[in-house]
Amino acid sequence: MIYQQKNWQAINLANIQQRLAWVQQQPDGVVFCKDSGSQYVAVRKDKGQIKLCLIEKLNLHTDLLQSVLDLNNPLHLVSEYTQAMMLGLVWQNQPKKVYIAGFGGGRIPLVLHHYLPETVVECADVDAIAISAAIQCFGVQFDGRLTVAIQDGREYLEQQSPDIRYDIIMTDVFFGNGYFPHRLATKEFYELCKKHLSTAGVVLVNLLQRDEFYAQKVKTFQSVFSQVCVCPWKDINSVLIGTNGPILEKDEIVSRAKYLQDGHEFSFSFTDRAQDVKIGTELAEIIPNLDKAQVFTDDSPPAGYFDCWLF
CA 70 to CA 254: how far, in whole Å? Predict the structure, then answer.
């Protein structure tokens, strides 16, 4: 079984590299740029890396790099926040089904698909052009285990039958200016996630720390999940990890990550990301005003939530 898996992974990596060969041959600069509603989807080659950005048409501005791929090591997760999103494997090391709201360049789906050859990875994203960019420039190829729906991430989950359960659910949904959809940050949405989780399943959410409503979003997450951990990256991103399964202490999180690191031979330091995780009372120390924060609900978006992003 191990030999068969290693053999499949060697073939899969060769296929990924073959799909990236045309990009390797391009000079540095923009290799993909297409109109997508209120923004442009652009891919740039820069010194052996491929970078996906969403650029606002209004002022040709973007705050966020959506995806980064190392052409010489396409299974390496360059961005530390994407490494942190993989920490769901600490709670569910052999997931049968994974759901990801948000696709971008498909970095996490591609890596999960490679290292977990028995796992089904379902994704949803509203931007068909970004998915085209992932196929053309990021080595993504869909099959029976890796699928994407051109659909709102919450709507996709709402349409699943009640018996559908995922071991890991992730949300990584941003527009180019950093806007995070309100309906993917409410108590009702996380209750929906909980309804579709397996018994010890885990939910992971990528947030921006500079978000004016960062504390409220963490508080809302805490209102649904009995254990909430946060993996902060510098002063930029934080990955929230929530579960209603068994509580894990910090040393157990790290030891499980080391086991996975050794077993999969990840090219990034999975153990380091586990070391970064904050649990329990540490959350109040790193998130100002968490105790005073209000919980988001569908029917009451906070005043100013939409003003600061799109207009």
Answer: 26
